[in-house]
Structures are given as structure tokens and as C-alpha cells.
Amino acid sequence: MIERLIAAHQLINREIRRELARIAPDALRVRDLKKRRLAIKDRLFRHIPDAAEMRRVARLALGRRPAIA
Q: What is the reported pTM?
């Protein structure tokens, strides 16, 4: 479930970037996308409340190497 939420968050991020890159971005669409993205982030933090742990899980789910501290 966490991987699906992370993938949905990533997809919405891409949609926001695509909309903002347009010549005349639709402000209402951007607002709606940002609200959806925040709702997904809230659901993720219900499962993993520690932000550092959330980043680690997200990197693993996305197949990225963990950052070296």
C-alpha cells in the first residue's frame, strides 16, 4: 500500500510540473492536484510518522540509493 501511495504522489508531482510548464497553467487544476498530493502525503505519514524513515522507505520503493549522511 505504501508503494502505491508513493507512486501516486510521484505521478501527481509530474502532473503538477507538466501543468506549470504550460504557457497558461490552469490555477484551479494546480490547486486541485496539490490538494490531492497533500492528502496522499497525509495518508503516508499515518503509516510512517517519522519523516526520515518516510524518506528512506520512499527511496527504497522508488529504487533509489539511500543518501549518505
A: 0.72
